[in-house]
Structures are given as C-alpha cells and as structure tokens.
Design brief:
heterodimer, A: 254 residues, alpha+beta, 13-stranded antiparallel beta sheet, 17% helix, B: 415 residues, mainly beta, Porin, 18-stranded antiparallel beta barrel, 3-stranded mixed beta sheet, 3 helices, 21 strands
C-alpha cells in the first residue's frame, strides 16, 4: 500500500510538471507552424510599400494553395499595380522534391517556365523576401530552437537554422494564447546584426481561426517598411485542382 | 439551436465557393472592368524634328463564368484616329477555349525574337520598339484550344490575312529604290481565298516544354509581279504585289538549367514556289533561333542573348527576285545576334531595359534603351532612346533608318 501511495505521488508530481511547466522551444515552434498550417488556403493580400519619406505604394494579390501527400501547389494572381495586373504564377511541388514554376505575363500572352525564386530575393519590391512570404519561422527539422525568455503573455524563442540561407538566426516572440508570432527579428548570417523586424499589428479571427491580419516588416538599414494585410482568408476549403494548372494560368478559368 | 446555427453559418462562410475571375466574390456575377491609359510624349529625332504624341487607350472587359468579351481601342490625338487594338470574345466550356475576333495569338517560346510566331504580321510603320506583341498587327482570327493534364492543342483559322504594315513614303519607308516611283496595285488579302490555318500541340514535362507547329498561310511580306518598266531611261513604272503561300512545319521548346533557360525555335517554310523559279514569290527556307536567358532571382535582373538565322533554298541570282531584294547583302543566309537586359531598382520604382541587335551580313545594328520611373501606383515617366545604323553602308532595315535615331520622353497614367 505504501509502495502504491509513493508511486501515485510520483505520478501526480510528474503530471503536475507536465501540466504547469513551460513547453519546450521545439514544442512552441511546432505549435506556431501547426496553428498556421492548413490543407488548403485562399488569401487576399494587400502589400503597402512605405518609403522613408512616408510615401506609400500598394500591391494586391490573391493566393491559393493546396497541400496533398506533403506536396504543395500554389497559385498567385497579381491584381495591382497596373504593370503586373493579371500576371499569374503557378508553383507545383513534384514527387521528386523539385518544384516546377510557370508564370503567365499578359503583355506577352505567354506562359513561361521559370527557375525557382531565390529565397532571399525581394517579393514584388517589398521588404518581404520569397522565403518570408512562405513562412517567417522555422520548423524543428530546419533549426535549433532555444527558449530564451517567457512572460505572462509570450514566449521568446531563438532559432538557429541548420543551413544558413537568408538569415543567421531569428528571435521570435510568440503569443501564449494564439501561438502566433507577435514579433520576429531576422539576423544577418553573422548572427549579430538585426536585418529586419516583423511586427504583428493586428490579430483577427478569420474562418474560425486566429490569424495575424496586419504585419509590418521593417528593413533596418534603409528604414523602409512593408505592411502586409490579409483582407480575406479561407482555410481548409475545397479547391478544385483546375486552379493549379497551366490552363488556369493562360485563361483564368477553371 | 443557437450553437448549431452559428456552426452552420461558419461552415457556409468558410466553404463558400471561390470563383475563377474574382476568387473572393460573394457570388458569381458578371463583372465589367473599365480601364483607361493615357500617354503623352515628345519624340526628338536626330534630324532635330519633333514628334509629339498623345494617346488615350480604353479597355473594357466583360466576363462571366462562360465567356469574356474584351475591347481595347486607342485614340491618337495627334492624327485624330481611333484604332481597334483588340476586339475578341472567348468562350469557355469543359477543357476548351474558343476565341474569335480582332486579336493576336502568340506562338514561340523565346523572349527576344521569334521565327515561328507567324500568325500575326508585324507593323513596321513606326519603326522598331522593345515590345514584340505591341508591334504585331491585330487580325481577324479564330482559335480553339483544348487542354489536357500536361498538354494542349490550339487550332487557329484566319479568313484572309493582313500583310506587314509598311510605309511607302516618309521617315519609316522601306520601299526599295527600284520601286520608288512605281504605281503598285495591292493584292486583296482579306478574302476567303487567302485563308490560313494551323495548329500547335504543346506538351510539358519536368525536363522540357515542347511545341510542334503546322501552319498553312501566306508570307506577310509582298513580292512583285507584272512589273512594267520604261526602257529608256530604264525605270520601273508599275507592279502588282503578290503574296507567297507557304507551309510551316516547326517546333518551339524551352528547358531550364538552374537559373538559365534555353529556348529553341525552328522550322521549315515550304513555299508554293518549290523550285524557286518565280521571281515574285519567296522561296522555301529554314529558319532557326536559339536563346539563352538568365534570371538573377534575388534582384530580378533578366539577361538574354539570342542567335537567329535563316537559309533560303534555291537562292536566285536575279537582282529583281524578291528573295534577293529581301536578303542581306545578296546572300541566301542571314545571321542576327540579339541581346537584352532588364533590371529594376529602388524597390521596383525604376525599371531599366537595354537591347541590341546586330545583323552580321549587313553589319546593321539597332540599340534600344529605356528607363521607366514609377512616380506613383498609377503614374510613371519614361525615357527611351533608339539608335539605328550600320558599320558598313550595306543595305538593311537598320541602314535605311539610320537617320531615325530618337529620344523620347513621356508620362503614362492609368485610371
């Protein structure tokens, strides 16, 4: 009986640790990705490029993406400015791990197969790179995560990527309630200098899930910034495969 | 009950249908889009003449799930002319698209030039600009495209055709010296007798995008027949224009090698004048193009270099044969090198383009450069320069237009 009580006490103690102790950095970052993942998504996005003088230019785009058997296809339709209106971009991840990409340029009336965009390249002249548009955090297989501080509202996690491509490290402040990134600092490959800072300015509930609807990416060296607003979003909805075809690129029809 | 209702509303909101031409539209309603573009410019030529330009473009799209009607017209305020740039209706059903109207239909896989993009003739009445599509003449045509998973077939029919648009007088005239004072009787080309048609089958694989083409139609440049002349002093006084029917069997392809794209176009133009005996008709020929382009994805800089050539079979010796008149330096072959670069700066506010063409046999060259600066989302200013010339004084389009070097500045607005 005494043995049973001891065992029960140890189990209870163990459970209380599990219940009340902080999650690990890996668990936090897994949650960050998990909360933002979906099998399909449709986003209506406005990018506002803000110069140091405060002058602003807008870009509008809509993206559709679907993930099937671990492979993601993405369609992006550019709505403005006029110079890129109706430009459509299709990316399909193949079974061999390679990604095929096509672009339809209305001025040329042609589809062109193109090489993959470099992750560090600027997306539409904004402060977001192509890799930032895909994700601003790393999953556990891509980086070593360390919990460096915690307060009543947030976790602060340092992530050092296994392979340095665009950044040497990131420091992410994660909201404890929603597990959305409130702020991300992106460092140079030398891990000493902050290149850019992403700040979440608004969180809203779209399609029944919390979403960072307004984010601002600031480039420190130039002091210009880009505001990304998600105007509309739908997640885990049925998306016809016809969207992810070169026919849709050419005709804009399913 | 309240909870069930809330869940139902949420499900309806999250699973609402997306639409093709307006993804987030609340419901599939017909959509009309108006779009105006105004361009004001000043073109200064090397001979110090000034050519102001004021253009107003209007585009209207009307579309619903099954069709799209597109109208684009342009008004030139300086010449007081209204021209139809694009008038077409496209129908969509199943995996097919049927388009008909006053339009262009592009073939070819390269960026800088094409040898198999034969469906629309060029407009050379205002010189050469750095936009191949804008230099095309719109024509009455019908296209039916059927799409499959990784392939498509487009069939095109043209009831008649428009020849290459050339000026017979003035700055952009390309009339041969022998025909300077000739009375020309233009052949009727917009009739069913001059129909043309063809098809292209495209297939995509991870290694290569390949297209096979066939076209039966007319060569857009005219030849000359029934030439009358005054024997003393010798001068040509009259001629009828005539166009050559030909069949094109060709291919287009593009392949990626890392950041490089290799585009190939080529084909055999089988003339109705198979043995090359008629001096008024163009002979059969081979035409080929290879283009290597590179995109620096971090900066978006685009670089490309292309080689284009042709070889005319049974090349004649008579100086009055159209193949000789159209040749560079009286040779059966022609070789042209083209290069271009485009880059954007200041967060895509400034776009710079340069392009150059060198025609080997005639030593003729063309240089185009432009800079466009976005003053706002709907307003940009631009500066364009064009140089024509030749290293040696040999006949070519570039040599003929040697005095037409120009500098153009202007503003363009969209609203």
């Amino acid at each position: 009986m005494k043995r049973f009580i001891t065992l029960f006490s140890i189990l209870c103690l163990g459970c209380s640790f599990a219940i009340f102790s902080s999650p690990t950095a890996d668990q936090i970052m897994e949650q960050v990705l998990e909360r933002q993942s979906s099998t399909t998504s449709a986003l209506d996005i406005k990018l506002t490029l803000i110069d140091t003088s405060g002058s602003a230019r807008e870009r509008r785009l809509q993206t559709l993406s679907t993930t099937k058997d671990g492979r993601t296809s993405t369609l992006t339709v550019f709505l403005s400015p006029e110079s890129v209106r109706n430009t459509r971009f299709l990316s399909i991840e193949g079974t061999d791990g390679n990604t095929e990409q096509w672009i339809y340029l209305p001025s040329l009336k042609r589809i062109r197969k193109i090489a993959g965009a470099e992750e560090a390249g600027s997306f539409m002249g904004s402060d977001f790179s192509y890799s930032d548009m895909a994700s601003t955090t790393y999953d556990t297989g891509q980086a070593d995560h360390h919990l460096i501080s915690e307060d009543s509202n947030s976790f602060t996690v340092e992530s050092i990527p296994h392979e340095v491509k665009a950044y040497g490290k990131t420091i992410t402040v994660v909201d404890k309630e929603t597990y959305l990134p409130l702020e991300v600092q992106f460092y140079e490959p030398d891990r000493n200098t902050v290149v850019k800072t992403l700040t979440t300015e608004a969180i809203d509930t779209l399609s029944g899930r919390p979403v960072s609807t307004t984010m601002v990416m600031r480039t420190h060296s130039s002091s210009h910034s880009t505001r990304l607003e998600i105007l509309q979003a739908r997640y885990d909805i049925p998306l016809p495969e016809g969207y992810f075809t070169t026919r849709f690129l050419e005709t804009g029809r399913l | 009950m309240k909870r069930t209702l809330a869940i139902t509303i949420l499900l309806l909101a999250t699973t609402a249908r997306l639409f093709a031409f307006d993804i987030f539209a609340e419901e599939e309603e017909p959509k009309r889009t108006f779009y105006l573009q105004q361009e004001t410019s000043l073109n200064v030529y090397r001979d110090k003449s000034v050519d102001p330009g004021v253009l107003l473009g209007l585009s209207v799209d009307y579309e619903d799930e099954t069709f799209r009607a597109t109208t684009t017209v342009q008004f030139d305020a300086m010449t007081n002319t209204l021209s139809a740039e694009h008038l077409s209706i496209s129908l969509y059903w199943g995996n097919q698209t049927l388009a008909a109207g006053w339009m262009t239909h592009p073939w070819g896989s390269a960026s800088l030039s094409h040898v198999v993009d034969v469906l629309n003739a060029q407009d050379l009445s205002k010189g050469i600009i750095d936009d191949l599509e804008a230099m095309k003449q719109r024509e009455l045509m019908l296209s039916l495209t059927t799409y499959w998973d990784r392939s498509s077939l487009d069939v095109v029919l043209k009831p008649g055709f428009l020849p290459t648009s050339l000026e017979s007088t003035g700055r952009w005239s390309l009339m041969p010296e022998q025909f300077a004072s000739v009375t020309l009787h233009e052949e009727e080309t917009e009739s069913l007798e001059k129909f043309g048609g063809g098809a292209r089958y495209r297939i995509q694989s991870s290694a290569i995008d390949l297209g096979l083409l066939y076209f039966n139609g007319y060569w857009p440049q005219s030849g000359y027949t029934n030439i009358t002349f005054n024997p003393s002093p010798f001068a040509i006084t009259g001629a009828d224009t005539v166009h050559t029917r030909y069949q094109l069997i060709g291919l287009e392809s593009s392949s990626l090698f890392g950041p490089f794209t290799l585009a190939l176009e080529g084909g055999f133009f089988l003339s109705e004048d198979t043995d090359g005996s008629d001096p008024g008709l163009y002979n059969s020929k081979w035409a080929y193009l290879a283009e290597l382009s590179y995109t620096h994805s971090a900066s978006g800089t685009f670089l490309a270099v292309a080689y284009q050539g042709h070889y005319v079979l049974n090349f004649p010796s008579s100086p009055m044969d159209v193949d000789v008149l159209a040749s560079y330096g009286g040779k059966a072959y022609a070789n042209t090198i083209i290069a271009a670069a485009e880059s954007k700066f200041f967060r895509e506010k400034l776009a710079c383009r340069v392009a150059g063409t060198y025609q080997v046999e005639s030593t003729g060259y063309l240089m185009l450069a432009s800079a466009t600066y976005a003053l706002g989302d709907n307003l940009s200013c631009f500066l364009k320069t064009t140089w024509y010339g030749s290293i040696e004084p040999k006949e070519s389009i570039y040599h003929t237009w040697d005095a037409n070097d120009s500098l153009q500045i202007g503003l363009k607005a969209w609203f």
